[in-house]
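Consider the tokenized backbone below.
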């Protein structure tokens, strides 16, 4: 006769800030709604439910009936609501003040909405650092669920993980349940009775055992193939029936009930950790590939491998910001906004309107901290432009609100110099009432951020193409498919864990993998081989010297109505040491423009020089008829995913009608111009896919150097957001006519 075992079922439902409304709705119809429909038929099966704040806000608006049903199940004690940080940030990616603030804010919201007491929280992506115990308890939370991997990494053996432990930070105690990795792979992918048999083994071996399943609710319908498997083939009903049939020894319960009736196993301090796959993804791609190779080799060659692997900790989550500089740029920008909010909080001279605006800015900051945009693994995450754009949209809105609180003039221009991206070097921020431009003189003199306040877009939210460990899987799978086709066979995918899926969303992706040799920013300077072809440049070939990565010296010229940043860099072009001076001017009078001047000095007189500069424009996707290039006469040239090779160009424009954005580059010396899309091959929950990241626009000139050894060109970058502004005014007027509350108007436009 089996002993008894407590089984805790905890489900985590999440959609990130910035995800498409259709994705929210599809996940609701495929996962959240049918899951609730089935569970409601088993009132004797209690479970814990965590819904991220970004998803909950959508549900409250789109499906308030779902909220009502959850509230009724809470009242019937079938659901225990778990809290968390409101907008699902990685706790390691935000400062302590924001950790505590987000957790408290969400607890208050949940308790008010569901008329319950929130005792526990979901740790986003289970990314853990020891100091979080103090922050979580300071926010009023008593327990959380991590992975058994966290405990094993700290030295606990599997047989010690059928209960819960107490951890501590600065005298504050937090109960921690170890979630079962074995159950994560059994549920819902294997037959329900495999789970029952696993629980039977535990019940027969350990007294008063507690086993925890804690994982994504999207596994139950939204992940590829799972809707049919879970609902049409009735996996979930069969699973719940199996639990009911064995309820004499399987007690399905909740974390709070367990805390109230079961003593902890003892105390334990957990190391820095996340779930096992996340620690692998955080590694540099070469180290990740090596770990996979060693794991495969040792699993077969070393009988002690299963004992040894628990001490392999993998990578550290914060190093995603090293692996992906774009993640660090968003993080640094959010840290700057958070610090400004904290500084305003301690002031005692804010009136009630300013205090309300400060809370609006805080809400925007919290939304920008949603975790999915900052990392990449089995899901698109950082690789999805609309998620990165959502981060910047909220940060730009928060920045505008803070400017409204702190400035009295309607039109202004300003400059800030400091370590703005946390690389121990000085960056420069030029700003006015319409835009913010950020520059890194120490790294190529690049412009790496260009924020437009009206449409809340960072026009430079690009992403480099870089090597990923899974690219080898793409190459291998593509070859297997070709070999199978040659034999007249067809490869099939079965329902499996998302981590094992191999599927192409477009054909021939292996042929489209490319890696960038320099950052896809703007004002990226290139000396090129004379006669270099578009095809070779497109492949990253033919560059002379290394100005794209050179260190530039910077100086500021500041006036009452305009500010100029001048950057000077030297480097070798062949045998000649040359100088580039480039200046960028921002002003009050023409607030939608950046005036750019290039001067080259010490060029070899009489030689042929091929020089150009690269701009990369993001947020404007390709392949849509309302996103296109146009020439100096206004004639459309093609959509933004097209290749453009243009001669004798004095002006090039890019339009995104959906965003209401028109960007034009005017050139004082007619140029040859190349333009092409930057597309990544990345991994998502539904397979490998081609993603449009940005467009590269490269004006360039091939000329014979005059006797004085110098050359210059002026450019004007014009950013027209009048259509976006007109739409905002129309929406504001409509809201007022309907007497509905509208979101606050942009502070300065």
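A designed sequence for it:
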């Amino acid at each position: 006769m089996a002993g008894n075992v407590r089984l805790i079922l905890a489900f985590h439902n999440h959609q990130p800030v910035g995800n498409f409304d259709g994705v929210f709705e599809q996940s609701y119809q495929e996962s959240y709604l049918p899951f609730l429909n089935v569970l409601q038929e088993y009132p004797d099966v209690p479970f814990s439910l965590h819904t991220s704040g970004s998803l909950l806000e959508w549900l409250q608006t789109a499906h308030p009936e779902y909220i009502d049903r959850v509230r009724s199940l809470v009242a019937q004690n079938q659901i225990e609501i778990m809290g968390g940080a409101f907008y699902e940030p990685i706790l390691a990616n935000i400062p302590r003040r924001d950790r505590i603030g987000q957790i408290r804010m969400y607890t208050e919201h949940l308790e008010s909405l569901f008329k319950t007491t929130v005792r526990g929280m979901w740790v986003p992506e289970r990314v853990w650092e020891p100091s979080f115990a103090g922050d979580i308890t300071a926010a009023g939370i008593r327990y959380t669920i991590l992975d058994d991997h966290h405990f094993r990494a700290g030295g606990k053996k599997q047989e010690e993980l059928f209960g819960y432990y107490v951890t501590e930070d600065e005298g504050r105690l937090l109960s921690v349940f170890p979630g079962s990795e074995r159950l994560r792979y059994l549920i819902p992918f294997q037959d329900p009775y495999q789970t029952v048999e696993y629980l039977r083994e535990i019940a027969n071996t350990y007294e008063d055992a507690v086993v925890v399943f804690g994982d994504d609710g999207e596994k139950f319908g939204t992940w590829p193939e799972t809707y049919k498997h879970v609902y049409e083939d009735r996996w979930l009903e069969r699973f719940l029936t199996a639990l009911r049939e064995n309820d004499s020894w399987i007690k399905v319960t909740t974390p709070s009930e367990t805390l109230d009736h079961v003593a902890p196993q003892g105390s334990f301090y957990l190391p820095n950790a996340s779930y096992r796959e996340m620690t692998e993804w955080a590694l540099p791609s070469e180290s990740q590939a090596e770990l996979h190779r060693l794991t495969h080799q040792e699993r077969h060659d070393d009988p002690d491998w299963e004992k040894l692997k628990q001490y392999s900790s993998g990578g550290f989550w914060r190093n995603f910001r090293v692996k992906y500089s774009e993640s660090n740029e968003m993080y640094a920008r959010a840290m700057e906004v958070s610090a400004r909010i904290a500084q305003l909080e301690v002031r005692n001279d804010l009136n009630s309107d300013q205090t309300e605006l400060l809370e609006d800015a805080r809400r925007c900051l919290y939304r920008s901290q949603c975790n999915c945009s900052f990392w990449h693994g089995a899901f698109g995450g950082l690789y999805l432009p609309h998620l990165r754009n959502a981060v910047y949209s909220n940060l730009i809105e928060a920045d505008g609100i803070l400017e409204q609180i702190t400035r009295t003039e309607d039109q202004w221009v300003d400059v800030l110099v400091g370590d703005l991206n946390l690389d121990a070097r000085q960056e420069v921020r030029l700003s006015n009432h319409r835009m913010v431009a950020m520059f890194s003189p120490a790294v190529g003199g690049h412009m790496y951020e260009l924020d437009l306040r009206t449409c809340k877009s960072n026009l430079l939210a690009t992403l480099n193409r870089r090597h990923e460990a899974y690219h080898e899987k793409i190459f291998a799978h593509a070859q297997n498919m070709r070999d199978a086709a040659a034999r007249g066979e067809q490869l099939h995918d079965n329902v499996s864990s998302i981590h094992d899926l191999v599927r192409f969303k477009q054909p021939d992706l292996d042929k489209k993998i490319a890696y960038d040799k320099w950052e896809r920013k703007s004002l990226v300077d290139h000396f090129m081989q004379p006669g270099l072809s578009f095809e070779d440049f497109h492949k990253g070939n033919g560059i002379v010297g290394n100005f794209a990565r050179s260190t530039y010296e910077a100086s500021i010229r500041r006036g009452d109505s305009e500010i100029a940043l001048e950057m000077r860099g030297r480097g070798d072009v062949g045998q000649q040491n040359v100088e580039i001076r480039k200046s960028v001017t921002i002003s009050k009078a023409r607030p939608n423009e950046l005036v750019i001047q290039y001067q080259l000095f010490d060029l070899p007189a009489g030689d042929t020089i091929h020089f150009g500069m690269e701009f990369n424009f993001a947020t404007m996707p390709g392949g849509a008829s309302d996103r296109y290039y146009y020439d100096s006469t206004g004639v459309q040239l093609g959509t933004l995913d097209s290749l453009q090779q243009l001669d004798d160009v004095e002006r090039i424009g890019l339009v995104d009608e959906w965003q209401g954005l028109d960007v034009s580059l005017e050139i004082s010396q007619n140029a040859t111009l190349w333009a092409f899309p930057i597309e990544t091959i990345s991994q998502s929950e539904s397979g490998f896919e081609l993603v449009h990241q940005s467009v590269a626009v490269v004006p360039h000139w091939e000329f014979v150097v005059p006797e004085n050894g110098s050359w210059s060109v002026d450019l004007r970058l014009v950013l027209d957001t009048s259509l976006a502004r007109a739409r905002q005014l129309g929406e504001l007027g409509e809201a007022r006519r309907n007497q509905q509350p509208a979101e606050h108007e942009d502070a300065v436009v």
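The longest strand covers residues 661-684.
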